[in-house]
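Hello, quick one for you while I still have it in my head. A protein chain has come my way and I'm curious about its shape. Can you walk me through what the C-alpha cells say about the fold? No rush at all, and the record is pasted right below.
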Amino acid sequence: MLAALAAVGGLAGCNEESASTTSVPRDSTIRSEPGSTVDGATSESDPNHPPSGEAVTVGGAWVQSSILYLKSADQMGVIRFGDRQFVFVTLETDFETAPPGPAEFSIEAGESTISGATAIAGHSTHSLAPDEGNRGNQYTAEDPKGWIAFPVSDRVTPVTDATLSVAHPALSDGEFRHRVSDQIVSTLHGARPDFDVQSISVPERASVNDKLQITFQVVNNGGDGTFRAAINKSGPSYSAHSITEAIPGDETAEVHFETFLYADGALQIEMELPGEYRAYTVNVE
C-alpha cells in the first residue's frame, strides 16, 4: 500500500528558513492513552496518581529506534544502532540535598543493568533532539525535571519485565523502583523498523522566493516505526531541518519535504538517512 505523507521540521540556523508541516494520521499507530506514540509505544502515568517515591515522580516513557541530534547550530544528524533501541523516560526529582544525575538512574532487565546515558555514539546527550511532542527538557542534576535516554541492547530484550531504579540516601530504604510498562517491554521485543530509501527526487534548478520540494520514497521492511532524517543546507542560506514520519511495517510511503528559498546561488543539500549519506546541489536562480 502506498501512503502519501508530508513531513517537514526545521531548526533555526544562521538564516532561518520557513517550513510547513502536514501530517496524515495513521490509523495503524498504537496509542496508549493519555500518551502519544513514537516508534510503536508510549507509556504515560495517570496524572492523578503518578507512581512516585519520596522525591521521585515518573512521567511517561517511549521507545525510539533512532535519534536526531544537533551537530551545530546549522546542522543535524541521525544516531542509529543496528543492535539497540532507545528508551526515553521522563521524571522529576525533589531533594533537599543534591539530586541524582542521569547516570545514577538505571533500567534493570533480567541480568542486565542499563544506566542513563550522558553520551551516545560520542555525542553528548545535551545535543539529542527526541521527537517533537516528547522533546521537553533533558534531566540533569542541575535541572532535575525532564527525559533520560537508556540505550537498550537486543541481548536484553527477551526479558518479560524491566524496572527503573535509583539509589539515594533521602529515599525510603535508600532506593526508588518503578516497573517499566509492559507496552514498552513489548515494543522492545517486537520487530524493529527497517527503512530503505528507494528514491529521492531533488530538482536541479529552483527559483528564488519560491519553495523547494523534495520527495522521498521510503519502504519499511520491518515493524511499525518512525522514519527520521536530517537535511542540512548551505550556500546562499544555512539551516538544518529534520523529518520524522511514522510508517507502518511492510508499507511504502512518499515523504514530502519543502522549504522556502530566500537567495540565489548554488545551494548545497546534505542528507543523513538511516544508514546512508547523500548530497545534492540545487541551482537557485
